[in-house]
Recover the amino acids of this structure.
């Protein structure tokens, strides 16, 4: 018989990592249901949303800006942005001062689909997190602490 496996936690429901993984899978499943009809994946939605947030403050949003805003791998962001460009949801133009960078912009079609997606996702999130009730602000603060503590790893 193989060596007995030792666990720090006595049961899966005592492991924060296990529970976070389960919540994440269920949350992603809910998002997939609302994003599929819009021809968007969860990752595409996240990058479009990051672009929209950044564009509110800066006209010259780059791929690196989007990767940083979304805590995403730069190579993955590059591939997904190519797909979004093929779908005509974004455009990429030469940067005025940085020849290595491209300025990423939402197209009119991209803005329309993103607005539909945002409405659907925000409603799905309100429903999904409703079990937390009036503790949502505290939950969000806890998640922000986890992000801040771990984002540079």
């Amino acid at each position: 018989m193989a060596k007995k496996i030792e666990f720090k936690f006595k049961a899966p429901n005592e492991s924060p990592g296990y529970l976070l993984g389960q919540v994440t899978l269920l949350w992603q499943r809910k998002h997939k249901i609302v994003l599929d009809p819009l021809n968007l994946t969860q990752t595409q939605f996240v990058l479009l949303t990051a672009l929209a947030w950044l564009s509110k403050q800066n006209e010259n949003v780059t791929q690196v800006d989007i990767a940083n805003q979304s805590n995403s791998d730069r190579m993955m962001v590059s591939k997904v942005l190519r797909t979004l460009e093929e779908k005509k949801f974004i455009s990429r133009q030469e940067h005025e001062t940085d020849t290595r960078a491209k300025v990423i912009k939402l197209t009119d079609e991209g803005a329309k689909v993103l607005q539909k997606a945002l409405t659907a996702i925000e409603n799905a999130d309100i429903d999904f997190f409703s079990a937390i009730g009036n503790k949502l602000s505290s939950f969000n603060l806890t998640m922000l602490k986890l992000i801040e503590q771990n984002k540079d790893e």
Q: What stands out?
A: The radius of gyration is 19 Å. The first helix runs from residue 16 to 35. The first strand starts at residue 90 and ends at 94. The beta strands are 90-94, 102-106.
